[in-house]
Amino acid sequence: MRNIIEFNEGWRFFKTDEVPSALPAGWEAVTLPHTWNAADGQDGGNDYWRGTAMYCKAFDRPDLEPNGRAILEFLGAAMTADVYVNGRHLAHHESGYSTFRVDVTDVLGDENLLCVAVDNGANDRVYPQKADFTFYGGLYRGVNLITVPAEHFELVKDGTPGIKVTPSVNLKNQAAIVSVETWQNGSGPVTVTVAGEEKTVTPKDGRACAEFLIAPVHLWNGPDDPYLYTASAKLASGDEISTRFGCRETWFRPENGFFLNGRPYPLRGVSRHQDRQGMGNALTIREHQEDMAILREIGANTVRLAHYQHAQEFYDLCDENGIIVWAEIPYITEHMSNGRQNTLEQMRELVVQNYNHPSIVCWGLSNEITASGAATEDLMENHRALNDLCHRLDSTRPTTMAHVFMLETDSPLIDIPDIGSYNLYFGWYLGGLTQNDRFFDEFHTKFPGRVIGFSEYGADANPQFHSSAPERGDYTEEYQCVYHEHLLKVIGERPYLWATHVWNLFDFAADGRDEGGKKGVNQKGMVTFDRKLKKDAFYLYKAAWSGEPFVHICGRRYADRAENTTQVKVYSNQPSVTLRIDGRVIGTKAGKTVFTFDVPLTGEHEIEAVSGGCRDKITLRRVAEPNREYLFRKAEVVNWFDKEDYKPDCYSVKDTMGALMHNPRSAAILGKMMERMSASRGDVAKSANGNANLQRMMAGMSLESLIKQAGDAVPAEMVKSLNAALQQIRKD
Q1: The pTM is what?
Q2: Is the Cβ–Cβ distance between 322 and 74 less than 8 Å?
Q3: What is the C-alpha to C-alpha distance for residues 356 and 52, in angstroms, rounded to an integer?
Q4: Residues 25, 31, 36, 37, Cα dihedral to 10°
Q5: pLDDT tens digits along 204-214
Q6: Residue 690: its pLDDT value, please?
Q7: Residue 463 or 686, more confident
Q8: Which CATH number does the domain housing residue 239 bear?
Q9: In the prediction, which pLDDT does 406 show?
């Protein structure tokens, strides 16, 4: 029979590429899961270390049945791994996120040394190599030793579970035909069991197949009823495997979005990265469970598991909780001409290892793959090959892509997958909030037959920063709320969006970042990196999505306020909210999701929001001067020109980029400034060079707005001279 032995204890670790001949006593003792980037991967800067490190473990020969096999299982080794047993090189694996297994039987002695060289260094063939998240290194998921009898189900090929279940649902008849396939190394009979019914079949060429009718069928039906069946298979040798599955029907429609089991089912949710502060990506089941609890609290019914294969424990949790999943590989940001085979291998492993999860409804081919360049023919062919592979491996799920916002909407790349989605950041990285509205309206009008979604949108917020007049780029909690209030409205008015995913549920490590008062962290999450603080925007979505009654007063970390009358905002899923100041009712408002009140301040006050049995309290203080600790930029905003000297009939930094491009003289000045910004930053200014679609999007953006976003890349003196030059050019 099959026996699984945890191999997570007793490891030694050292940063070297030399394979030792004995267990080194002087190396660091570690327990799996482990990553060497738990600290430096989230601090960024020069301390972030990428390279090759060695993990070693001594172990005794396991008990094996006659002609039985011993197989090592690696659940996650980032990013490439080489496996050695007793000095023999047995395997090379190039994916940091998928399971792989190695048969070690033939090299075992009574005492054995296992060494695993793991490398997260740069190369030109293994994805990811360029992206806005930290590429952790290490054996960051568990390792097992699996022993099986001579006749056993397949374990090694593509990290397969050895069993594949395909339900076909007939909603009209309330029934499902369930096909079960197994792979094994012998020709003996296979006994398959589904829903209490048992069938024995004879395999052909190592493959066995059995069909079952379930009637009436109990549907897997989202968070309200995520019902799971179990399929099991057993060999005469005693080797036995099982998997859970769900019976559900999904459709995607250009006008109505997503359907689950025959009914419209708008997918509204979040994206998730798997890392955590102080731990990196070396998580245990406890952290996965906590993340799922937070996802359930916000009321989401979908999660985009970005940008790679996540742990099996989390896919299992999605199955159990009825959360619809977008699963994808890390083919991201920059196409590599030497990387095609790696994308195909990672996609094969993703699909084969996760096929049975009912929560997964689509396979993601790539993310923002044209962010670093045009859609070349090699890139296009890579996507065609991935798309074809997905359809060969799985005829039941569509393929999708997350397109970078500057990709032309008529690009032939968009036609390759079955359905599509866009990452848009209007109102944060560039432009205004209403450009999100216009983008989708224009897209849907121009391409009414396309299934389109909203795969990323977000704004960074550091809970330290606050403002009564929030604006784009200030990193305040208040602007993050303004941003998401608008985007929630955009989504609500466009039911054709098949899925929408906030970027991101959690802050996450991005080693290349140093902004918004934190180094090495992307702060677009609605929950902090350590999961200890839920930002105000979290409760906006909870109010829109969750049925759990609550009220939440925004701005509890914005206690010191310098205005005589301040706005207090309440998020709630209740029909009305009453606000009290120091026990005195100042108003009751009926509405939905967002409730705002004007509150007079004279000193320190207790503010309480009440709705039925729900209540929340914060304390506000009237102060003489604004608390400068709330400001991301401590310096005063540069006064770029004196109002007395301003000539409204001439150009200035307050004009839109489209208007400035209209005049040859102002266009030349703008071009020089964009070159300066492009040379100093890898941001929107750099991306705009040569990209007609992005330039068109930026046309409605004021030059002043772009300069504010650029920060130190455009010094104050340069802005003053720029504006002075523009003020010499009379408008047409």
Answers
A1: 0.92
A2: no
A3: 34
A4: -160
A5: 999 999 999 99
A6: 53
A7: 463
A8: 2.60.40.10
A9: 87
**265 in a domain, yes or no?**
no
End residue of a domain, out of 500, 526, 548: 548
Query: Residue 490 domain-assigned?
Result: yes
Rounded CA-CA distance 556/579 in Å is 15
- Is residue 45's pLDDT more than 60? no
* Lowest-pLDDT choice from 9-23, 386-400, 662-676, 684-698: 684-698
In a domain, 523, yes or no: yes
Is the model's pLDDT at 237 over the cut of 70?
Answer: yes
The letter for the amino acid at 210 is A
Beta-carbon contacts of 239 under 8 Å, excluding residues fewer than 6 positions away, are: 1, 2, 148, 149, 151, 152, 153, 184
Q: Are residues 116 and 19 in the same domain?
A: yes
Q: How confident is the model at residue 9 (pLDDT cuts 50, 70, 90)?
A: very high
Q: Could you tell me the sign of the dihedral formed by the alpha carbons of 382, 405, 698, 714, in that order?
A: negative
Cβ atoms of residues 272 and 305 within 8 Å: yes
Crossing angle of the two packed helices 477-492 and 434-446, in degrees rounded to 10: 30
pLDDT band of residue 681 (cuts 50, 70, 90) is very low
- Same domain membership, residue 648 and residue 600: no
Is the same domain home to 384 and 303?
A: yes
pLDDT (average), residues 233-260: 98
Q: Is 438 contained in some domain?
A: yes
Same domain membership, residue 201 and residue 279? no
Q: Do 535 and 565 belong together in one domain?
A: no
Domain that holds residue 191: 172-248
CA 32 to chain centre: 24
- In DSSP terms, 146 is beta-bridged to 4, 71
| Active site (annotated) includes residue 368 | yes
Closest CA to 561 of 619, 608, 517: 619
Q: How many CB atoms lie within 10 A of CB 207?
A: 14
Task: Please report the DSSP string for 509-565 in residue order.
Answer: EEEEEEETTEEEEE---SB-TTS--B-HHHHHHHHHH--S--EEES-TT--EE-SSE
Which of 368, 456, 477, 608 is an active site residue? 368
